[in-house]
Amino acid sequence: MISSLTNLLPLPILVPLLGAGVALLLGHRPRAQRMVTTLCLLAVPVITSVLLYLADTRGVQHLWVGGWRPPLGIALVSDRLSALMLLVASLVTLSVHVFATGQDDEERKVETPVSIFHPTFLLLSAGVSNAFLAGDLFNLFVGFEMLLFSSYVLLTLGGTADRIRAGSTYVVVNLLSSTLFLMALTAVYAATGTVNIAQLSLRLPELDDHAQGALQMILLVVFAIKAAVFPLSAWLPDSYPTAPAPVTAVFAGLLTKVGVYAILRTQTVLFDHRPLSPVLLVAALLTMLVGIAGAVAQVEIKRILSFTLVSHIGYMTFGIGLATPEGLSGAIFYTAHHITIQTALFLVVGLIERVGGSTSIDRLGRLASASPALAALFFVPAMNLAGIPPLSGFVGKLGLLNAGVNDGSPLAWLLVVGSVLTSLLTLYAMAKIWSRSFWADPVEGAPEPPDNVTLPRLQTMTAMAMVGVTLAITVAAGPLYGYADRAADTLRNGDYARVVLSDVDS
Amino acid sequence: MSPNLTLAIVAGILVACGVYLLTERSLTRILIGVIIMSNGVNIFFLVASGPAGPPPFVGSSEAGTSADPLPQAMVLTAIVITLAVTAFVLAMAYRSFQLHGHDEVSDDVEDARIRELADRDEASESFESIAFADTGEDVVSE
């Protein structure tokens, strides 16, 4: 039975794409342009909530786009995992957009608003949605290219020397990973004659074991570059911190998680029968430890946060590497939690930069007395990131630790120890930011901290809303974890292939 | 299906050249590397699509003898993306040339700073020495 509601599936891609075109035409009218962007980004969370409801109550939703006879057209598929990612992503893009609008208002006097920002931002949103909804690997590639291209433009916005340097590294690394992705696609197509994920999940297990291993590894490497899993993570802390605050916030929240999503999708739906546990677990351990060691060494808040971002990708890899239902649901919950928390933190850092004039903890000080509200806004997500109970970071980590202990293998135990250590070091890194920027006096020679600053209203409200979302995840942790359990179950029980291929004549 | 060995070797050589150029510092060389590499990958698609045949239009040839159209569609998409990449990297190289007079990607400043500190074996500015106020001993005993 095809419900007409499945026609909603392309909308999270089409609405922002259409909006991007209109916004580009309205380039000389910033106000109208902003209005269009806001409307589009408001519509997407509504659509994705419906998709989430459909995926949870009626199972996997799919649509063959273009009216070709299946399996010829392009399939869009939304299962529980995709729908959850879509909803979280749309909330994050909306809030970052509002934050950026606030920033525009504040900086109107010094800087003319860039007319390219809004269309690019909408394209980024469309690319992210496309990657989450893609039912075949080639469409996933196209989704990645859409979001990467927008990210190239957003990262080098303004074309200052710093951004061009950081952008160059970022662009070259991603070009390499895109080329690798194409090679993986040729190999997959040559071996199986299809790139449709549902068909692949049936045809891959029939291949020769070595061929499967090669395909699995090359796909893993491609997505590990995008997700910044060690040793393929060096590009991230180098490039993210130089971008404007809202751009860093959306990158840190979303882009690496699209890579995590792709790893999750390919390793479970395509290669569930031969998990790459040892490789993934060792990579996860190294990602956690190397990432957090980098964070501890830094003195710039944005860089510290970028390194913790890398290190916490390790937690998700840990869950995927375990390849048990508990591990997977832990990874899904942690991904949803981490998207919101990382965005919230970077938005708050945008405020810190505005209030303190810098993001280096050597140049900041006594922010807590200058602005208690800002201090509270930073403190809550920082503690959440470190995994202090009862916040959602704690719930996510507990789930993963539990899954590791239940797995019981020596490697899993090692990972459990590594996760706890990483948690502690994250707490140390956060405490360092807190004590040096919010409590201590600034280092000698640094500018005096301002007294009684007023925070920009719209931006503060947005940061508050984002922190509110992270708290909501904490409050609703029970139901959300239940949802993650069901999502992990859908990934492995073969529903995906069964539903998508249900209307294919054999 | 037996793959075409000549095409596979050509593709391999192109990709190898591309990767070599990618390790350069100059953006223009990197760009040439990316273009060569993506051409190599496009040839891989031809290998994957099997033997050449008549165009795949209904009724124009016997069923089963025509060329596989799907890899060609993918190659087309890949070519379009490479075009966009070329335009963007050229713009970036030009901007870099405007700013610095060359298009070489420099090292990360922060990284270089921390590496320098490590070479001189000094603690960074953010290092806090933790000592008891009364005795002056380190809290963390050796």
Overview of the molecule:
The complex is a heterodimer of chains A (506) and B (142). By secondary structure, chain A is mostly helical. Chain A has a domain at 275-492. Chain A has 20 helices and 2 strands. Chain A has helices at 11-25, 30-58, 80-107, 117-133, 137-155, 161-192, 197-203, 209-227, 235-239, 245-270, 277-297, 301-322, 325-356, 367-370, 372-386, 392-407, 410-439, 457-475, 477-492, 495-500, and strands at 61-65, 74-78. Chain A has a two-stranded antiparallel sheet. In chain A, strand 1 and strand 2 (74-78) form a beta hairpin. In chain A, helix 1 (11-25) packs antiparallel against helix 2 (30-58), helix 12 (301-322) packs antiparallel against helix 13 and helix 13 runs antiparallel to helix 18. Chain B has 142 residues and is mainly alpha-helical. Chain B has a single domain (5-119), classed as Orthogonal Bundle (Helix Hairpins). Chain B is built from 4 helices and no strands. In chain B, helix 1 packs antiparallel against helix 2 and helix 2 runs antiparallel to helix 3 (69-100). The longest helix of chain B has 32 residues, at 69-100. The radius of gyration of chain B is 27 Å and the shape is elongated. The model of chain B has no long low-confidence stretch (mean pLDDT 81). Chain A binds chain B through residues 138, 142, 145, 149, 152-153, 156, 159, 161, 164-169, 171-172, 175-176, 178-179, 182-183, 185-187, 189-190, 238, 297-300, 303, 361-362, 432, 436, 443, and chain B through 3, 15, 18, 22, 27, 30, 34, 37-38, 41, 44-45, 47-48, 70-71, 74, 77-78, 81, 84-85, 88-89, 92, 95-96, 99-100, 105-106, 108, 110-111, 114, 124-126.
